[in-house]
């Protein structure tokens, strides 16, 4: 088993270059998350988006620390008013129905990154389990917040319906399948051979 992610392997040895690499990968990840937010549709107060796909990929590629920092930077961008979320920005938007899912992105990226660092990203069955674990963190936080806002039964009806689950299965499958392509992209961006 490995103790790092592919991004960690590609990280430059020179401290100054390593910091620039970390900043570039984190900002690149926030751009990916913002793009994923544009792929969305509403089926209630909580939209179905490609953001969960982005969070899973970011965590798997960047690892636990860089992945969580990327998501925190993304949330800070949205909290500051930048239009990086699906239907709004700012603290009031983040306190709405999608707030728990947004907060759940952080532990999801960390967990997926941690499992990738343990080698779970190297085989399809464990990579799919790794992605599903991250998804469970997102939904755990999202449903918990919807429960605070609407009560448990309505939270399940709003945030855990068949369209969500079908979409999430597709996103986990896609994230698992595209992981090797992400490694190649990181390799190209770092000017190292894959």
Radius of gyration: 16 Å
Number of strands: 2
> What average pLDDT do the residues reach?
88
Order of helices and strands: HHEEHHHHHH
Based on Cα principal axes, name the global outline. Answer: globular
**CATH architecture term:** Orthogonal Bundle
How large a portion of the residues is in β-strands, by DSSP E?
Answer: under 5%
Question: What does this protein structure show overall?
Answer:
The mean pLDDT is 88. The chain has a two-stranded antiparallel sheet with strand order 1-2. With 194 residues, the chain is mostly helical. It has 8 helices and 2 strands. The two termini are 19 Å apart. It has one domain: Arp2/3 complex 21 kDa subunit ARPC3 (Orthogonal Bundle). Strand 1 (40-42) and strand 2 (47-49) form a beta hairpin.
Please tag this protein with its features:
194 residues; mainly alpha; Arp2/3 complex 21 kDa subunit ARPC3; two-stranded antiparallel sheet; 2 strands; globular
Task: Please summarize what this structure is.
Helices cover 74% and strands 3% of the residues. With 194 residues, it is mainly α.
Task: Compile the SSE list and pairings.
Layout: H1 6-10, H2 15-37, E1 40-42, E2 47-49, H3 51-79, H4 91-94, H5 99-117, H6 124-150, H7 152-159, H8 162-189
Antiparallel strand pairs: 1-2
């Amino acid at each position: 088993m490995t103790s790092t992610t592919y991004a960690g392997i590609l990280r430059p040895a020179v401290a100054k270059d390593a910091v620039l690499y970390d900043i570039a990968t984190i900002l690149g990840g926030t751009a990916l998350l913002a793009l994923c937010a544009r792929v969305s549709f509403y089926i209630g107060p909580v939209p179905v988006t490609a953001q969960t796909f982005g969070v899973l990929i970011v965590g798997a590629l960047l690892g636990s620390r860089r992945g969580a920092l990327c998501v925190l930077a993304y949330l800070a961008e949205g909290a500051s008013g930048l239009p990086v979320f699906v239907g709004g920005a700012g603290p009031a938007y983040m306190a709405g129905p999608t707030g728990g899912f947004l907060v759940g992105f952080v532990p999801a990226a960390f967990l997926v990154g941690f499992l990738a660092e343990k080698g779970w990203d190297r085989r399809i069955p464990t990579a799919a389990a790794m992605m599903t674990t991250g998804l469970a963190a997102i939904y755990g936080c999202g449903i918990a917040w919807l429960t605070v806002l609407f009560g448990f039964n309505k939270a399940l009806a709003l945030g855990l319906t068949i369209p969500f689950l079908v979409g999430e299965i597709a996103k986990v499958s896609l994230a698992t399948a595209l992981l090797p392509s992400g490694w190649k992209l990181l390799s190209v961006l770092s000017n190292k051979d894959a």
